[in-house]
Amino acid sequence: MTQPPSQNVPGVASTTAAAIIACGLGQAAANYAANKHRGGQNGKKGTRYEDLFLAYKVAEIVSLRTSTTDPWPHVSGQAQSFVDDVVIRDAMATNYFQLKNAATISWTAGEHPVVTDFSYQYRLANFLQQPTPKTSIVVSSTALAAKLSADVPAAIRSHSGVIHFPYSPTLNRWVIENPSFHSVLGSLARSRNPTDDQLAGVLGVLVMACGDFPDGGSVDDVLDVAQRYLPHQLRRVGVVEQVHLRAQFVNTLAGISGLTYDVTQGFFAWSGFGTHGALDFDCADERFNDFQALIELKQPTTFDGFEELLP
Fold it and tell me: What pTM did the predictor assign?
């Protein structure tokens, strides 16, 4: 029995021409996958549909995470595969996404139909012993998504699906036009009730960070890079941290009428009398200790007095 080749670099080295040939798809298929990968890399200019989707999936992974000990999934864009736009892999599943930001798409049309790409990818993934491979087509039109969902070819139906993911030319517009996606982006925001601008900031820094991993990377590595790009733009994740609020600080704030505050996102966020905000640094920063000490020293008794002490 032929053994799959080495998989030293997830998502790239594991899908080599040698593997494609060894699993029985042949040289022509290997050439096609290589050409498709080169074409995708050459076409990568600016913020594209694929960039938005990959960044959003990183946020989604964070929002769904329930364990602080399990390894983070590996994500990549423009992998060397038949279904190559976005690949997400963990110990339990391997998900391949092909994105089509077009008005009309067919499963069977063209020189290299989607149904063939999905079939080839599933065969290759199984040969490489990747866990539970799935293939999905992602489209920006709700009507097209419904049409494709109703017509998934029988040959790939067991492992294939359709996802609707909207597109807008700018990050701010995308956030404003798609409120149903806010809760996922909000899982990484500095406050529990983030503004549209804050959500666009979350998405934007994730787009930049993902771009630093042309061969893919672990989600926690992407988050680390995002934090370096814009420190304190995102809340800290993956680490269990107890926010330390000093007793005198808490007592002082409790005496200020109309002031409410929250630290569940790891940032000190406040609101009152129609205004709200969050500190530019998180609660693990030494500057937060300095802020608490200042409040304790000045002992503000009104909301205006509190605002005057904000850094």
Answer: 0.76
